[in-house]
Description:
This protein has 8 helices and no strands. By secondary structure, it is mainly alpha-helical. It starts with a helix and ends with a helix. Keywords: Membrane, Transmembrane, Transmembrane helix.
Amino acid sequence: MLTPLFIARLAARDRVRARTAASVPALLTFLVSLGALGVLVLVVYDTALLYNLGRLGERLPIAFGAAAVLAAARLTAARLSTRSAPGLAVTFLQRALRHWLALFFVPALAVRYGVMFGTPCLAAVAGLVPAAAAGGYAVRDTLAMDTAHGSKDGTGARHERLLLLTLVLRLGCAVLVGAGAAYAVTLLMPTTYYEATLLPAAAAFLATAITTCGLLDATGRRAVLTGRDA
């Protein structure tokens, strides 16, 4: 009963901030916060929800460490500067994460238990559909923001196609690099239940993808400035 009211209050507070795209440091700080929160969830899952409270003593240092990291990440996020404008791919990632985190809550439990109870293919589809929808919404929002200035002189459609091609190329590179990082984590961190592997693998994928997108955006921005100077 209280959760919807709490979420509505947080959404109202964040509504103004949501209109502006995040920077690479802001996204990485958010990712650290998400990872620390995930560790706390796994500690609860590994003790209370699996009825193994005998493990609580050895898990408490992990929980306290994750709580400290979460608090430090939120303090850091509040002090980050938002003066620099993010690039095309970073803007897409920020908007895609916002949409996906909201949409994935709908099938989350079905995906989790579908993997465990014999319907992994259906669970994969249920996980991919919100991701695809979030990506579509993010492309729409990103292109609408970046092509607004070109629509007045009749070059909006051509500019939008160029932006879409640039975005696809940058995201393709980021996905390849991120998938390699996630695969390396799965090889290095085998665990007894898959969530404990999925969390660091997803964190490695997102951190690598965000960093790659930031580097590609910066390289593209420098190339544009060099071309204008020439």
